[in-house]
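Protein of interest.
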Amino acid sequence: MADNPDDKLAETTPEWAPPASGAGQVERLERVKRAKPVPLDSNDTPVPPSKPSRPSIPSGASIPPKLTRPLELVLIALIVLALGFGGGWVGAGARHDSVTDVTENKVEMKGEATVISDIAKNVGQSVVSVDVTTQTASSDSGDSSLDELFGTGGDDSGSQTEGDAGTGMILTSSGLIMTNRHVVPDGTTSVSVTLSDGTVYNNVKVVGRTPDSSSLDVAFLQIPNTNGKTLVPVQLGNSSGVNVGDEVVAIGNALGQFQNTVTSGIISGYGRSVQASASDGSSTENLDDLFQTDAAINEGNSGGPLVNIDGQVIGMNTAIASDSQNIGFAIPVNDLTGLIQSVEKTGQLQLPYLGVLYVPITSDVVSQYNLSVNQGAYIPTVAQNNGQATVVSGSPADQAGVQPGDVITQVDGTAINQSTSLTSLLDNHQVGDKVALTIVRGGKTMTINVTLGTTPSSISN
């Protein structure tokens, strides 16, 4: 059966007419499929359909639905293509960002490792191993075989010779070295130092060491003759600008092996006060105003530098917490600046001396002593100190009029707080310096000028 031309025309009937309900809707759909009657002329001859002309679309007229469908399909295809391309581009960008992040992390880690390596190289040449021989009294056990067994070197004179090792840092090109007091204890008979390149100097002189009662565990050594070798001193930094979380590197002669080791970590606290003792418990000392760090400090590191990320010394490694992991303590370098300058200038160790016993103020101290200020150094009364004097008679503080019960809040205008102690501010000065103390007494603030003296051998600050 030949196709009826009107069948195609019937298909152009718009399908957007309001739908009928029930059977009418089904009927209407069927009607759309039927052919329309064939038109006849006057002789009852079928009139051939005229060849349809290409329709024109008047300006402003809408496109019939049948014509919009191909356009819609083309538009959809273009959108899908664009989305596919865009998604691929975004995905590629995301992958690129991921690769970039990994690369940047690798670069950052490599950069950090390079910094630490540079610090180890640059600062390491200024770090020395300190080898010490001491003569100490020994108990008379009556059995020399025990001395030989344990290698104590005992003899009939009732004394024994012991060897020990620590770390030091070079301060001047002429061979002035700083280390801890406990590295060169009382009874030291000989000292030698070994440079990072293996050069050994014997007969090193102990210039001076702080008294055991001092909260500053420091001693100074001098190489008498460098044999023409120019030593490289460390670069001292400013410990007052150090914050918790700052990265630090510890360098030292770990385990007395005469070879520098390097560890890194952060400053985890400051203003710490600890009671340090020898590993055998034979001696104890009170240390104040210390940095706390998680950079591993091992036996043999004592006296070595704690440096910042710029390679500047901001502290001297001093003690470790034996009941925890990777908690060490270092003396802030600003606490040592005055002593360093004094030794460089005079060749002698002279500690500036005020002559008071004080308690760093914390919230607990404020509550305990009912204080009106929350920062500073409190000088307890005699009754609060179990009847012991807290202002030493005849001391610079006593002569200037400082009294028990006073709170020293500033030294030369610099506030005393948890990060800056009275000891550290005084140790920035030298013997004979005049300092202005800001004092709170009975709720009133006043200024007292004091001329610092020299610390007696049995007293500190």
